[in-house]
Specification:
The protein is α/β, with parallel strands linked by helices and 1226 residues long. Strands 1, 4, 5, 6, 7, 8 and 9 form a seven-stranded mixed β-sheet that branches. A six-stranded parallel β-sheet has the order 15-14-16-17-13-18, sandwiched between helices. Strands 19-29-28-20-27 form a five-stranded parallel β-sheet. The chain is globular, with a radius of gyration of 32 Å. The chain starts with a strand and ends with a strand.
Amino acid sequence: MKHLTVRFAWHDNKWNGKICKNPRMNFYCRGNYSLLSPRIQKRINLEIEEKTANSKISEVIGENNYFPPCYWCINALGEKTCIIKDPHPFIHSTKWGKDFQRMVSPLEEKINSYALFSWCFLMSFEHESPTQIYPPISELEKRAKKYIQNIKGNESVVFFYANYSNPITGDDYKYCLLGAALVKEVEEPKRYQIPDELLRKIRNEPGMNNFPTIAWQFKIKIDPKTAFVLPFHEYLEWLAKDKSLEEEKKWKKLKEISTPVIEHTLIPHFKYVSMHLSHDKCIYLLYYLQKSVKKMKEHQIVDYKILEDIEKKIDGLLSIAWRERGRYPGFRNLLFTYLKHDYPEDSLTIIINEFEEWVRNTYGDLDNFLADVKNIKDNDVPSQLIKVIVTIKRNLDEIKFLSQFDLTIPQLENIKADILSKIGLDELKSNPYLLFEKYSYDKVYTWDIDKSDYGIDLYDIDIALIPDIRYAKWSTEYSAQSPQRIRALIVKILNDAASQNGDSCLVKSDILKRIEDYPLYYINERFGLNERTLIDYEKETLFKERFVIKTEFQNAIYQLKELREIEKHIENGINKLVSKKYEPDHEYMERVIREEKEKFKDRINIGERRRAYIGALSNGLFILTGKAGSGKTQAIVELVKKFIEENKVPIYIFTPTGKANLVIKNRIKSAGIYNSNKINISTIHRFLYRSPAEYIQYIPAKRHEIYQLTDLVSDILSGRWDLFKDFSEISRRGWRFNPSVVIIDETSMVDKILLGALFCMINIDNLKHLILVGDEKQLPPIGVGRPLADIIFYLRKKGMENIVRLESNLRFSPDSGLGMLTELFGGDDPPSIIEIEQILKKQDGSFKIDYFTDIESLKGKTADVLRSLLHQSKEESIFNLFGQIFKGEGNKISLDRVQIISPRRVGNFGTMAINQNVIMNGNIQFLPQTKLICEENIYYTISHRKKDERILALANGSIGYLDDEGYIRFDEIDELKASYGWQKIKNLIFNIKNEIYSPLQTDRRIDLGYAITAHKSQGSDFDNVIFIFPEVTPFITKELMYTALTRAKSQLHIFVNEDLKQELPLILSRIYDNSAIEQRKTLLFEFKISPSRAYYLQLRDGRTLQLRSKIEYIIANILDKLGIKFEYEPEDFWLEYRIKPDFKLIIDGESYYWEHLGLMEYGAYRNRWSYKKQIYEVLGIIDKLITTTEGEKMLKEESIKDIINDLKSRNLKTTENSYSKHHYEI
């Protein structure tokens, strides 16, 4: 028997058999990642649902003849029975819809109380045949029968979950575990009565020969006494109403009790609406739910009796799950691996079924049989089972050991072939956790989980070896505190930290906390780990061979060795390039700078442009950073021209996204310098996947090695970081490319794994220039690490001049409202409340701010902006207004003319709500002229040069649209068409078309693109941006604000929730303190408390001071040498005014404050200083304030000593019309 998962559409009435309380605001139900999303979107009638809100569905059906399209789950916890009429999904087919509406009657389905419908969609499609969409009809019937038969009443546990369209885990694109129940009964699916004539017509179509009549849905009745859902709704109501706690603390509580499905071994069981689960996965998920309930009890937000009732239900389900598991859950699958060569598959199934029945009848259970099997004689056994008994006796030790683990047939075969054959049974018994650490596999996803392979997780080993003695009737000799298990647990923790949070290392305290949070909490409750034990283990070889453990800032830092290997590879490449130096062509650069000055006038800073060009041409490694609109792309074009002139070719230009790739390619083409023999412009993904295959035509004898290389790329980028060493070694055998110049644009979006893989494929020894272009102030990469910020930190700490940040803004004047606003979140100084207040008042042509109260208010203000862009007052739908703007003059489509950006995907004013309720008036429709966005990476396997090549077809965040004929348009698809030809990608186009139009899709990876998150906007620019600021949450970091505010090229409109109006300056100032980059932990070059403080000063008293700039380091060093008592960034005025001076000096009992003004050549910096100076005036300490700037040739140490002497003699220099009353040059 099996357990199973079942997908729910989110319901604001807790699936109680009633229409939602607020149907329009439950946009999650209608979202692209809901339950059978296309059907719900097409069938929902919001007018009826709003009119009948909170009514029983039985009443709504009777009075309105309306059948809620979410009926699969709406009555899961409902107490009434009703009849539903369910039309065939093909009524929504563009080709067959009219025929099905006319000729095929809807199914009549009885929805019992506590009943739901589901289907495993993985078994419905043919994955092996290139010509057929569906499996043979008899095969589908066989699959459905077996799937349903494996679900046993009063034995199987069903888990309810929501797809990404949910308010709990939707921001992170994670499935949300909602609750569970015991299955009571399962009913087989019914059939649609499709006329023979229509059936023949359909089955004569290409790929449709096996079109089924069976309805893809079966009914599950659940036991009401065991059924529950976690009280997430109560938490959401509390979040909205309770004003007693700070918003950040409230959101933290919600995160603590959320139940995202993050384990890669579990995710496949949630992808296909319904999937079977093994015993151990069922047990793990029940403890996961129980852990959430325990945390809820600590919060004391939900009624204690409700939580106690849920705990009792989980306790009962755990008792059943452990009972059904038994001690040897892997025994049956293991028998298949031993006997598969002795019997045909069907015969083997029959033999094993007969054997299991004989064991039950003769011994009662498997435990008794295995205890006595050595004593069994041939004449004790039915003749057809003798071979089975002989096989078991011959392999008894191995069988008893491996049968403890609830693993699949491919997994057990892999273990025998790849692990047992190498290390032997005795070593594996001594450390069974090697099954988790060393298991290597190719993903196998089938509807039959016994024939699938999703990898082995830690819980697979823990549940077998450390059973919960409250339920299990057996024990083992294995210790929960053994170094082998603790090592495996830390491996899992570090892997999860990297894949989920982007941390490439963790401090020990974090690891100990995560050990406590491990979902199998009963283990830690009984066998808690203390820090002393961990310290002892750190000295053992067992730990040293798996982790890098080093002490930094009095913290023990842990890192997986495979991640260190990737970081070392990047470090070696950077260090090789840093040592390369060249003599730049100054005359050429001066001419370029003169031309730029003539073009951009006073908006450009000649000094920074000169430093940028000279730095790029004279160094093997150069980093060019700056905000959007600072002229980085302009600099790339000029540098490429110069490299071509110097014959430093080929030049490879890489980007992390298709959009960025198209932008740079168009700029290079418009400059008239694009030459495919000299310039290669590509996304990093496409280069890694495609480039090795280019060698096949030249070196066919090495075909196998090239294929191995491309397969390794795919595995490494999918999280198999342990394979990086193999990838690096193979690439060194002659598969590296030899460009003279590599330019990586938007480097802040490139994670460590991607950069490391790219470095493997480039011959660094032959590379003359590597130029990293980006903005370290933006959001960190989606993946592991923050390489751009770490490389900048390293170069600054080494005192190298390989970095230039462009501070000029070629789009907006620094005195403009938007110029000043973006500087608040991009500067090194936190913004003060006074500064924010004054900037918010400075609304001009560059930015405007307005306030909204609800979704209707937001809709009206959005329409006003769109009409103003069109210079019209005519009332039209927002959808039509967008369409007119995108078409523009000459009907040339430009989707960048206006973009809505919101911090979050979920929430009442997240992108889901805006796209549905603001743009589409409540319903998702895909009409001509609809703007689209790709919600996740879409890969495609293309046959190219006799090799199946995996390519990234559409990247997460790609923007497209439906043209007037309804065809889907993405620039990336046009690029692929040009590269490979129509024939090679026609199936890809068909697949993407299905994302929009297929009635059989369970979810859609293509969504409405009018409103996108700030994360998805990164790397793109738009003429006009509408930024929605609806609430205060931990999701809104200073990098998110900075990214959102810097997307506009012409004008930014900020719409703020009216509830935030009074405290908006304080809210914005606090956001600055919430940094995503600072929170991320890495060991690239070294561990950093803060990547923005690269200058470490060891003070005479033994303390280490971390400073932001080189000149601050010099000042602090001299003050320390002179014995001056000082503080760096004192917080004297922080709480009230949110400003920090650079230094506070105490001389003869008097306090003085020192500000070093390092970038006064820039207008934006000068503006910010003027606001800060005003605060010092308000504080009345102008007489105690010293400011300094750097002079050209002065000796800094002597001039700093002169300032100290003036302070000691109380004879500070007075300066008129300067930056302060006491200003010095040093």
